[in-house]
Amino acid sequence: MALHSRVALVTGASRGIGRAIAARLAREGAAVVVNYRSSRTQAETVVGEIQAAGGSALAIQADVGEPGAAAALVEEVERRLGALDILVNNAAIIHRGDLEALDPAALEQMWRVNVTGLAALSREAARLMKPRRWGRIINLASIAAHGTALPGTTFYAATKAAVIALTRRFAMELGPYGITVNAIAPGFILTDMVAAERTPEELQALLARMAERAMVRRIGRPEDIAAVAAFLAGEESGFLTAQTITVDGGRMDYIGHS
Ligand code: NAP
Predict the structure, then answer these.
(1) Segments making up each domain of the chain, as ranges
(2) For the range 150-154, what are the long-range contacts, defined as Cβ-Cβ under 8 Å and sequence gap of 24 or more?
(3) What's the CATH number of domain 7-190+222-247, 3.90.1150.10, 3.40.50.720, 3.40.50.2300, 3.40.50.300?
(4) Strand pairing of 7-10 and 31-36?
(5) Is residue 156 annotated as a catalytic residue, yes or no?
(6) Could you report the per-residue pLDDT of 112-131, keeping only the tens digit for each?
(7) Whose CA is nearest to atom 46 of ligand 1?
(8) In this structure, which of 18, 106, 164, 226 has its CB flanked by the most CB atoms within 10 Å?
(9) Ligand 1 pocket test: which of 10, 14, 17 has the largest number of ligand atoms within 8 Å of its C-beta?
(10) pTM for this model (two decimals)
């Protein structure tokens, strides 16, 4: 129970990677806030599963891309749980497209959720963490930011590159207060995000191709990411900050040597 008495907020925890992180942090003893935007039933299912396993969780709705949402969400966490020790900025969206298909409105929406929302939540969380001289902020980046060769992720990659840059800057600003800030850059993990807008046949072909391109010859599971998040959330990672940890099974399809 490494996270006993810690309060954690995981954004976008109704499914996928966020759900696995919420379950894992709860298993380690944290009281977990399962944030979601619209998937209320799924979020309540996650809460129910955590409670059934003996953990503590509650669901709070908030669209992290909306102005003012971060402050309201963190205030509600403080009101209901009294503190916030661990923030996992997991919620994100993807609009696929390349330069030819540039859609400024889609890019702006991704930016609002993936970057502005993450920054606003980090500020609000830090406000509660600073007086306690302890905190963990964990941001979900992506290996797309490093320059993977998967087509259609051009502008999404730009938002995730911003996440990596902000991780380093926030770490520098918050380090003196005992708050570490790190990012995880997942490779290809099977979730709704990668399944969306693809036929079952397209998805199967993509899964096979991605497994082939990983050194460990498989695609990732949300639990692979949750294990790293649990380490970053804990006491033992206190001297680790400003880092982006790539968790991709050794992907080998980067631009430049694809
Ligand atoms: P996912 O399956 O699409 O799930 C996204 C989650 O975020 C859902 O719970 C969704 O809740 C929530 N969400 C979306 N927009 C939101 C908003 N504005 N406010 C609050 N919650 C919001 O995604 P995933 O694959 O688990 O990805 C999780 C993170 O890992 C993301 O940051 C993603 O960019 C990153 N990542 C994923 C992969 C991958 O291969 N899957 C690879 C690299 C990085 P609702 O259903 O309620 O909208």
Answers:
(1) 7-190+222-247
(2) 150/253, 151/98, 152/96, 152/97, 152/98, 153/94, 153/96, 154/97, 154/98, 154/99
(3) 3.40.50.720
(4) parallel
(5) yes
(6) 999 999 999 999 999 999 99
(7) 39
(8) 18
(9) 17
(10) 0.98
